[in-house]
Design a protein that fits this description.
The chain is α+β, with helices and mostly antiparallel strands and 154 residues long. Helices cover 20% and strands 40% of the residues.
Amino acid sequence: GTDVPIVDIRYSDGVDTRRNSVVVTYDGGTVSAVDTTAVARDGEIRETVTLPVASESYAQAWADHVVNTRANQTTRVDTVTISAGRDPDNIVRTVLELEIGDRVTVYHTPVDDTGTPDVIEFTGFVERMSWDLGGDRWWLTLTLSPEAFSLADW
């Protein structure tokens, strides 16, 4: 990977997307997935959905995927803004190769109120890219998702 200078970074705690129990209705029936450890710790946080698929294995894979990626609260990076103009020979080449759906890893070490560094590592997928160009400002903001949304990934 290439190190790029971060101008701004926005975090969330992932509470609003947590799911430790999923029930999926599909064309052939119903399947479910549960993280019993997370349910015992947090209480049941259920999602019930209907998928337009005929395959039990796809429906089960989707339910398992949601529970495996969302059962536990984790810090996520919602957006990260980088300055491509700080090192145009290396950074511009890297960011111009990015596409929607690409996997990226963000490493950030903010310092908390006590002066203690807190290392954050987040791997996500590019959902959106927006440029802010003006004068010597070449900023690219990436909106990230913690998971890819494609049945092809299963």
